[in-house]
Amino acid sequence: MAPQTARTRSHFQLDTPHLWREQAWLAGHWTGARETLAVTDPATGETIGHIPSLGEAAVVTAIDAAAAALPAWAALTPDERADRLLAWYAGMRQHREDLARIMTLEEGKPLAEARGEIDYAASFVRWFAEEGRRAYGETIPSHLPGRHLHTLRQPIGVTAAITPWNFPSAMVTRKAAAALAAGCPMLVRPASETPYSALALARLAEQAGIPGGIFQVITGDGRSIASALMRDTRVRALSFTGSTEVGKALIRQSADTVKRLTLELGGNAPFIVFDDVDLDAAVDGALAAKFQTSGEDCLAANRILVQRPLYAAFLERFAARTAALRVGHGLEPDTDIGPLIDARAVAKADQHVSDARERGARVLTGGKPLGGNFYAPTVVADVTPDMALFREETFSPVAAVLAFDDEAEAVRLANDTEYGLVAYCYTADLGRATRLGDALDYGMVAINCAKLTGPPIPFGGVKQSGQGREGSRHGLDEYSELKYICLGLPG
Ligand SMILES: NC(=O)c1ccc[n+]([C@@H]2O[C@H](COP(=O)([O-])OP(=O)(O)OC[C@H]3O[C@@H](n4cnc5c(N)ncnc54)[C@H](O)[C@@H]3O)[C@@H](O)[C@H]2O)c1
Ligand SMILES: N[C@@H](CC=O)C(=O)O
């Protein structure tokens, strides 16, 4: 089956049409299937293509290929693996515009944000190409006479990843680059809503000389692919980014084969604004932290807490700026907010707003669906902890704002959730900033800034937001085993 048609070529206007793949990259072959899944542009509802719906047999083929490729890949020097990863990185840089366009078509995010995600995704490949050289062990002063003790890091084995639709490239490379740099093959199953970004990455990996068994992309139903992965004892580690609900199901399924799981799950980020800050800086930060990717971001500010003396002024300015955001197709140059991923996401946003209204909150701007998968950028004031907007991740352009009186109350409200991914706070008081860094029960805390991610930082959550860390030097550890050697010295 030809992966591109004349229609898709002209329609999508890719400079390099062969990056648009409608087959899975399995065991070094572009592979189709009789059954397919349709993929739609969330902005128009139009079908943009079909991908193979592969099942358990294909997963076994992929694991066979990965297990066969593992010894030779693990035996390469870190420099040799780095060369392949850097070639992959170069391909991503070269095709940045096409990759961004593919992402906007399938995910809906504005093109400028998609370009930013491609840069972000590529940066993990470069980071881990370098970091693979530093998978150090250690020597241990011996407690036993006549012994030398040391540790070394070895590749864990065949690995797999299940990735979400909201960051269709970065969630693939943050996992795969770490696994490959550590000497492991990785089999990726991307979300069925956004498979084309991952398939384009597979095409670039192929061109970079990464062996077919080392990086594979398999498309199809998540549940059956996950259960085949979980059953197979050769798969030693699985990294999942997605909802807490599915993460919990994967923990249960992994028990029988005792796999290592890295889980990047849901969030419910507080964004705390104290009354000693520059109001414009805090409003800029809140807009950035709330509305990126239409609010469909695990790091999105889900609850904006403002100290009472600043509350009215903050609401006025924040609502005015929110009302000015332009909603549209992500390929339109002026778009700030794209569509939500599907009708279910729109219904959830609207339910959260109705629930808040019924419980006494005020809708200052937006608060309604705009047709199709679009929802108006919304500010809801006077939110209380009993509202769904406070308790659940809304994953939409709906901002929930509430007032607090003092630092103790802010911390109590912020920590009143089972999630613990990221917290933001704005304050001019250094002592308070330090105390908040300690007291907020989150894996990541951003103080006086909204942008905090990148390859050098350990990304991850506590409580029900997940386990393990991605990126940074710690990201390699998820894909290696720490082995201890006790060497007895003759005589
Ligand atoms: N912490 C992070 O780094 C991070 C990053 C992005 C998204 N997320 C979270 O992801 C969620 C939104 O993404 P989503 O709606 O795609 O989540 P989701 O859990 O529904 O889906 C995530 C992935 O799992 C697959 N999947 C669904 N059910 C499955 C099952 N039973 N077994 C195996 N795989 C299954 C999906 O097809 C998708 O590929 C939000 O909660 C968000 O916070 C977290
Ligand atoms: N925005 C996150 C992904 C979560 O949805 C990131 O920066 O990695």
From TrEMBL:
Organism phylogeny: Bacteria, Pseudomonadati, Pseudomonadota, Gammaproteobacteria, Chromatiales
Keyword line: Oxidoreductase
Keyword check for tRNA-binding: no
Organism: Acidihalobacter ferrooxydans
Protein name: NAD-dependent succinate-semialdehyde dehydrogenase
Molecular function via GO: succinate-semialdehyde dehydrogenase (NAD+) activity
Keyword Oxidoreductase recorded: yes
A Gene Ontology biological process term: gamma-aminobutyric acid catabolic process
All residue ranges annotated as the Aldehyde dehydrogenase domain in the record: 33-485
Signal peptide boundaries: none
Record field: transmembrane: none
Homology family: Belongs to the aldehyde dehydrogenase family.
InterPro entries: Ald_DH/histidinol_DH, Ald_DH_C, Ald_DH_CS_CYS, Ald_DH_CS_GLU, Ald_DH_N, Aldehyde_DH_dom, Aldehyde_DH_Superfamily
Active site: 264
